[in-house]
Prior knowledge:
The structure holds 2 protein chains of 2 kinds. Chain A is an alpha/beta fold.
Amino acid sequence: MTDFLPLIRSWPLQRLIRAYPLVDDFLLNLNLPALDGRKTLAAALLAVSGEQLAEFGLRAADLPEQLALFLETMTRETEAARAVERLSVLAGRDKSGNPEAAGVEIRAGEVVSIVGPTGSGKSRLLADIECLAQRDTPTGRQILINGAAVEDDDRFRLEGKIVAQLSQNMNFVMDLTVAEFLEMHARCRGEDAAAVRKCFECANTLAGEKFTAETKVTQLSGGQSRALMIADTAYMSKSPIVLIDEIENAGVDRREAIALLTRQEKIVLISTHDPLLALGADKRIVIRNGGIASVLTTTAEEKESLVTIEKIDRMMQIARDTLRGGGRVAIDRRAGAKVDNFLPP
Amino acid sequence: MKMVTVAGPPSSGKTSVILRLAADMPEKIGVVKFDCLTSFDRRRYEEAGVPVQIGFSGKFCPDHFFVNNIEGALQWGRRRQLDILLTESAGLCNRCSPHITGILGVCVVDCLSGVHTPRKIGPMLKLADVVVVTKGDIVSQAEREVFGMSIRQVNGRAQILYVNGITGQGAFMLGKKVLAAEDTLSLTDRRLRFTTPAAACSYCTGEIKIGENYQMGMMRKMEYD
């Protein structure tokens, strides 16, 4: 890892900010936006009164070290989460204390769906993965990363880093346009303008209805929001594991969304009752009474039935688009035509 | 007995986080809540079977009130034979920092409060050992990450934990931090991590009129251009 302190001590501020844009945010944060960029941090701070720094509980002498600590923490947290090739869930117990039927192993680029009635324990499984349980949660499950147990120190370091979450309840709350929002996230992640462009384009291909970069994120429809969140997770987020808690049926290309995440070598777990997604996964975990009841590998026959389900889904899509456009929906009754072909008027 | 100071802006979810923690841990947990005027949380704690004491600072500075009563809080906890005592206080002027050297300091902030909030809170966040982020389940992952970075800028050292105050998800990891805290018998001679706000002026003693003639004592004037 870069040793930041010597750079902070020797480089002029403007060079430091060019190399690490986060430095700018850091200074802004301490109410120090107007420092002389031609000087080093320590030299520039001579122009600031000690009283102003004391308001933040700081001394000028400590600031270079504090900046180094911030840059190191940000870098370390980004690196720590990389390189998860294999995630294993070792079986624990169900709600009645009986051993679970099976554990499960998932590799980077694989999709696993989780099915089971409401309240059966799907969230609990996602929670165990999120906190990297080590036989110390109520289920007694153990999570291995690349085949190895995870020490408590690493669990705390990886907190919030290893798992990205997407759920139907999530909204955008920032008062920003799509472009501003993506730029902000890119800066926080050390990504460049190319990532912002890619993310925006991809979100627009996933969304049923297109949107512009000048749209406020809070004004996006449910489908558009979800499309933007998925594209952002794929291109900006460093988290190697993505937990998805249902995605809307309307307004977003669900299969393409999942394919996008797996192309980025993410491990994708998706809690869903949507046949298209459940059968599109490589495996599905069946949850009953708080425990894993079985792990089913999607069979060839199921993949085949997926073709029919996709057709129905497309039909629904055509009907939806037609209605949205003010048209009428009709069934194709010509000789030899199948009933599952809606006729766009 | 272990002691933890929990601070955070009003409505950030301090009480919910503490209740989730209490539900998750077999240890005997009690709470001393420092508030200003009213508190509606007594019943929430009592319903959960968590012993609670509530102190109102009223017309006194909430920070000074906190410091003057904190040793008493610790001794109450010991008399009640608690395993863990949590103190809860709102940083009403966004400057309050109830954290004490050698005592685990937790700051609770919520994602909905805006991405710049961590920059506005000051020492209560900057000097915390653990920053608990609540309401993360209803904002986008990206906003959560930006929020996390905002916290990092203010406090590069703290452990950031995401806790859902409704389902309790994440409280388990907070419990691990609490259990690792030192046992404490007394706070006398310990130090606050940050000075409390200073004021010894005419308004401290009940003056309510505005104007130069009424301003006496220690005060600070703004410079307008």
